[in-house]
Amino acid sequence: MNKVEFVVEFFMIYWLMIGVFDSGYGGLTVFRELDKKFPKYDLIYFGDNSRAPYGSRSPETIYEYTCEAVDWLFRNGCQLVILACNTASAVALRKIQQEYLSENFSEKRVLGVLIPIAEEIAQTNGKETIGILATPATVESGAYIREIKKIDPDANIVQAAAPLLVPIIESGMIYHNSTKDIIRTYLEPLKKENIKNLVLGCTHYPFIKHLIQAEMPDAKIFDSPSIIPASLENYLSRHPEIENKLTTKRQRCYITTGDPKRFSEFAKKFIGLEIYAEKLSK
């Protein structure tokens, strides 16, 4: 498969930004909280909507697509990139950090959302069974199990793959009549285990968090938007060599490989962000 070359009409040469990447709309849930937490930093969002969802793709394709996006973000002004996509974090992050960065951008950094969530739930869980609701690729990677058990080797973890949820959310069918039934079906194996601590292992799922919570009212939910801002703040405090390079012009940019008008409308309708998205051509 040939590498995709992304083209956009502007080049942010004077900014050193924090980039947030997701396969589609999901990372907007994280971006909104980062926007609140770090109002002065320059932020850019990249949604690969034209190729979403990633969760049903092969590890090789997920890695390829993620590298293409990271490469574009670095070449267009980013000093640090957050993979807000759990699937990309689970499947591609380690290889990107160990191989891709050292070969291409040794002075820059890529962080994921999976490890901070795994650490948070492992440290606070107690002896309850942990539930993971995620895309097929994230479930198959075993990344959450691996990271949680690094801290709590005795943790009992039950995973449930939910292949239809990202397409449902990307299509804007959050309040469709059938969505509750689909969610209920995916949560059934977790309900049987009487899960009290539940990880939303996909950054899209906070869009339907209220529906998931309604199905499992006694469960405490762990998700990216509630954990990543504090985790990034801690990271920057420990890495002033990165933090000191970031520009603080309060700039916000939104990039999509899909329809920019639809992207902007989705952001306004479902997350309350008034934005203007730019389209990347391929």
Task: Describe the protein in words.
With 282 residues, this protein is α/β, with parallel strands linked by helices. Helix 10 (209-215) links the parallel strand 7 (197-201) and strand 8 (220-222). The chain has helices at 28-37, 59-75, 86-91, 93-104, 114-124, 136-141, 143-151, 165-170, 177-192, 209-215, 224-238, 240-243, 260-271, and strands at residues 17-22, 43-47, 78-83, 109-112, 130-134, 157-161, 197-201, 220-222, 252-256, 277-279. Helix 1 crosses helix 11, helix 5 (114-124) packs across helix 7 (143-151) and helix 5 crosses helix 11. It contains 13 helices and ten strands. The strands form two sheets. It has a six-stranded parallel beta sheet with strand order 4-3-1-2-9-10, sandwiched between helices. The protein folds into two domains: 17-112 and 226-279, Rossmann fold (3-Layer(aba) Sandwich); 115-223, Rossmann fold (3-Layer(aba) Sandwich), CATH 3.40.50. 46% of the residues lie in helices and 17% in strands. Mean pLDDT is 93; it is low at 7-11.
